[in-house]
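Predict the 3D structure for this chain.
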Amino acid sequence: MAGLYEIWQQAEVWRRLDVLSGFVAMCVARDDHARRRLAQLVAGADAALSASPPDLGVASDHLDELVRWADAEWADHPHRPVEARPDEADRQTRDYAKDLRNATLPVRVRDEMGRIELSLEVRFLALCRTAHLDCRARQDIFYLAGRSAMALDLGHVEAAERELRRMERAGSVETPESCRG
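Done. Predicted structure below.
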C-alpha cells in the first residue's frame, strides 16, 4: 500500500490534471487533432497514475506538457483556470487523496469508517445544539471532531473512534455554575 505522502503527491497531479484538462477540452472542442493530443496526454497521465506503483514522474511530465500547451495557446483566456490558493488547493487535494486512500482499504474497513463518520456527524450536530456547554467545551468538541475526521481521512478507525469518545465526554461535562450566564 502506498504511503500517505505518495498518495498526496498522486492526488495533487490528479487534481491539477482534472482542472486543466477540462479547460483545454472546452478550448479544443472543434479541433480533432487537438482533441486527440489532449486525449493522449490525459491517457498517459492516467496510465502512469494508475500503475502499480504509480509513476508520478511520467504523470507529472504529461501534466507539464499540458501546462506548457495551455500557457502557449490560452494564457490570456478569460476562463483559464488559475492555480488555487494554497489552502484551497490543499482542500481539493485532500478530497482526491481521501478517494485514493479509501480505494486501497478493505470493504470491511470502509464500512466501519462510514458508520463512524455518520455517528460523528450526528453526535457533533447534537452537541452543537446543546445549550449548557460553555465556550471552552464547544472549542474542545470542534477540535476533537476535527481530529476524528482527520483520523478517518487517514483510514485509522481506532483513532477516529477514540476521538469520537473524547468528543462525547467533552460534551457531557456540565458547565460550572460560575460560568453560566
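The CA atoms of residues 102 and 110 lie 7 Å apart.
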